[in-house]
Amino acid sequence: MADTSGRWAQWGFIRDEAGNITVFSIFMLVLIIGITGASVDLMRFEAVRATMQTTMDRAVLAAADLDQKQPPEDVVNDYMTKAGLGDVVASIATDSGLNFRTVEASGKADMGTLFLRMSGIDALTAPAFAVAEEKIANVEISLVLDISGSMRDNGRMDNMRPAAQAFVEKVMSEESNGVTTLNLVPFAGSVNPGDILFDYFRGERPKINENNGWGNGDQDAPGGSLCNNNAENYDEGQADPSCTDGSTETATPGSDPIPGGKFTPWGQAISNIVWYFDTDDDGIYDVAHKIEDFPDSASRDADDFLGAVPFLISQDSDLSDKDQFLGASIKGGKQKTLYFQVKGDENGPEADLGPTKNKGKIPGNTYSYGQVDFTHWNGLYEEPSPGTEDAADPDYQSDDPDVPPGQKKRQQNVNMPSSCIEIYADEFDTTQMPLSDDYIPHFNFWPYDQDVMDWGWCPGEDTAVQYYSSNRQHLVDFIGQMRMHDGTGLQYGMKYALALLDPENRDELSHLIANGLVDPSFEGRPIDWHDQETEKYVVLMTDGETTEQYRPNDPKASINGEVALKDQGSGSYYMMSTKATNVANLQKQCALAKERGVTVFTIAFETNDAGAEDMRRCASSDSHFFRVNGSEISDAFDTVARQINNLRLIQ
């Protein structure tokens, strides 16, 4: 029999399964190592790619910033080099124009593999590509700033001024010139549109009934003749030699008060006097010059300084006529600054309603007492003519209800320091400019601090709205010189802000251009609502709640220029509208802005919870609302400016 043991042994070896798992394990181990290693390589690749991309994103964003002064290529390369990626940049492309800059960058980096090379892949290439653009489209901004009296608390005004100025500098850059306009709307109890638009709105300026001192039956006059409550008209009074307009004789400083003088002797040493002139014959001042540094030994009767009038006329080429002189305001000691009408004055040396600004910018120059030879110039002073053309008309009849029918009486505009117009409730349902021709009287309601405030619920002419400006420095200077006034009429501020963005109000802009207040290149603004090439913004800042609207019962009473209504007592004033009504009107305007596609940013600066909630509701969204304290207001304005400048990553 053949020996088969060898074959059986071979067959047994073949069928023996011992050790097969080892072979399988070796293959699986190789596979696991390969997959795990590939994951490590891929993670390394992604880390490199992400670092490159994020660094390049930051680089092109910085390079595209229109405020960036370095060449875009240098900015991108510097960012990448400092991140250790300077050798990965393949290309940088830029495109820029008057109102935009686009920066595009690309690059790649080869990364050697550790594990994928076992699969024949020796390197991976990480790409990066980024494009950033800052584009300033046509931009119309209404910046609404609170200048109410409470802004003097806790240094709020000192914090707000530089923050608002920095905002203007950011949004009104050289690159934005010609495409960005800014309406600056200061508000206190109301908003002053300025005398040009006041007249355009058919504003009815308050009148004083002036009769040159003869009485016309309702006022005693010098002497005891025809003038004394008997003169029926100007001509009769003029015919009587004993009727005088008050002595025009002059006196040297230090003498007794001049008979028939225009000023009450001051109770303390005079500090300065501001003299007001009207060059456009509308009855309100447009030029004012100040004389300061009066010595303590100087007369305290401003009648002794009327020589300032011919002196100032000699110094100012815009002044040519004694009839341009209106009156003067006096400051001295701890007394409240008071205004005294001279042209057409009817109450003698008593104070009158009128401007009392003696700090900050005035529309004129400042002179020292020592520059004026009053002995010489007093002899050249002439009384301004008192009348108006209407009063000289034989058919003229007074429209004053206090004047009996058929009785003539001279009338003239009160020399008011402001031009505010009433805005009634139904007007807040629209985005139109004010429709009323009613004048907001000159008064204060709350306490007054003359060191930092000017008297008036309505801001003064030098704190009127600044329209469609592209002049950055003018706006910065204007903000630096704003003085506070009384009241918080947020609804008025928002009303003007939105109306100045409404294309239906282009006629008003044309009127401003015709009067030299706006650059003619902006004819045709405001641009249409929802225009794809235009962005419209309102930036509304306040430190308090919307207040009630008060008005004096007697809007012409001279005491309104001296004593706050609150101190006069409840019989001196009435509430024209409640706080709730005014807040509702504010929110109506905010809602209209959003409907028209206007982006509304609001800044509640050290307000209480109720005031902050009003601002939150007014804003376009919660992210457009800022509640800040102290120096945080600078950060809020900076954030708003950057959003308006529209810096964005587009790929």
UniProtKB/TrEMBL annotation:
InterPro entries assigned to the protein according to its UniProt record, in alphabetical order: Tad_N (IPR028087), vWFA_dom_sf (IPR036465)
Membrane-spanning segments: 21-40
Biased composition (Polar residues): 244-253
Domain spans labelled Putative Flp pilus-assembly TadG-like N-terminal: 19-64
Keyword Protease among UniProt keywords: no
Coiled-coil segments on the chain, per record: none
One matching Pfam family: Tad
Annotated stretches, region: Disordered: 209-263, 345-365, 378-415
Compositionally biased tracts (Acidic residues): 390-402
Keywords of the record: Membrane, Transmembrane, Transmembrane helix
Name of the featured protein: Putative Flp pilus-assembly TadG-like N-terminal domain-containing protein
